[in-house]
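User: Can you write out an input/output pair for a complex, sequences first and structure second?

Assistant: Here is one pair. Inputs:
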Amino acid sequence: MSKQLSLVLVLLIPLAFLIYMLFVHEVDDPIKYIYTLTGGTAITLLYITTTISMFKKAVNLIKYRRTVGLFSFFYAFLHMLNFIILDMELDLASAVKETLDKPFIYLGMSAFFILLFMAITSLRVLFSDFYKYHKVIYLALLLITIHFVMAQKALAIDQWFYLLIMITIGIFKFLQRTKLLNI
Amino acid sequence: MNYIKQTSWSLSENLVTDEALFNERRKFLKLGAALAVSTSAVMDLAAKESLPQPNLNFKKDPNPLHLPLNDYEQITSYNNFYEFTTSKKGVKPMARNFKTKPWKITIDGLVEKPFELDMDDVLKKFALEERIYRFRCVEGWSMVVPWVGFELSKLIKLAKPLSSAKYIRFETLYDPEQFPDQKRDYLKAIDYPYVEGLRMDEAMNPLSLITVGLYGHTLPPQNGAPIRLIVPWKYGFKSIKSIVKISFTDKEPLNSWQKTASKEYGFFANVNPDVDHPRWSQKRERPLGKFFKQKTLMFNGYEKEVAHMYKDMDLRKFF
């Protein structure tokens, strides 16, 4: 089995787990559960996507980056479908109204459109023209983390943990770009 | 819902399976059911099996509105109880060894004479009744629970408040040895002890319930054992758990969530589909166990009973 295929199978585990939890285990609050699982997976994969390039000199995993990034988009897409289909029950007018009304939702939605842009332009025919714009991933990273933190009733340990990861990635990248750090 | 009534052919207490073993057996059953083709009938059976033996005497609620009850398992395994953890699923296992005996409730402030109530006396003094209420969390989920308790007004009459008493302040137990989040030095979820309050007319409303049980059984720790408040027309966080102190005051108490984020959570916290939380809509709610949402009702469906208390108030301002 090729390494790429194995990677795809690993990246599908959260989806399989979600289906099991929804239809066999029967979670109490399915809409919330889909949000948490797809959102948490998307954000984690986005962190991994950005981290891969940081360590390319030590371990070169660049050829897997696109797959991981696309799966981050895939889970963000499921997250967004959950919003439109189950949460808003396909009432597009109120989905748009909610999105414009609530900062927490429009931050998440903006991040989603950035990931959508990146997913489309990662197609081979478009990639060379649009590669230079792919730095917007760091904007998505920022938006998605704020969105995630804002979704909670109060800041708990887990959110501090995610904030810490994001800040660490940010500082690391900054140091690398400015050549203060040479890894 | 089926209740198991004590009859002449009931087994004696020593023949009853130990609760821990019983729960293990249930887990095993559920696993088996999940592995086999899991029909919803099997799952319903498993859910019913987790019902504990009723151990309270109370007057049953005939449920005239035919509210669809959530099952015992759902009600007791999806809890907000930050003193243990902010994970709703995590509360139940962490609360397992919570000590509720002995338990005393201090009643003080603007009363004729402050006193202490022992939990055993509470159960002797007040006749219990079942109240099937809707329960709506500010986070957007909801359930229907058959609580057992007595009207808060009865406790107020016993406490003999002075005429200067305008509000009641409730306080949850502060015990870092039992509540892990209270033990933290930093990054506590909220400030402790947890505080809630009601205006006197709200407290005297016949819907306000001092609650000691659910599904006919004393409250499990995760649901606020041994004694809690239930105010069904307000968001769930008003229904304070594990109460140790009830004080009568002339000032509006600063409740914990208002203290944490006053722009998002107020003193009144009445369920209101027309007033959004700043970060999310309150128009609809997710009933536990369902894939689809339902409309949230004004005052959580108790408009007839409570709306008169707020008729001159701007509910956008006093949220």
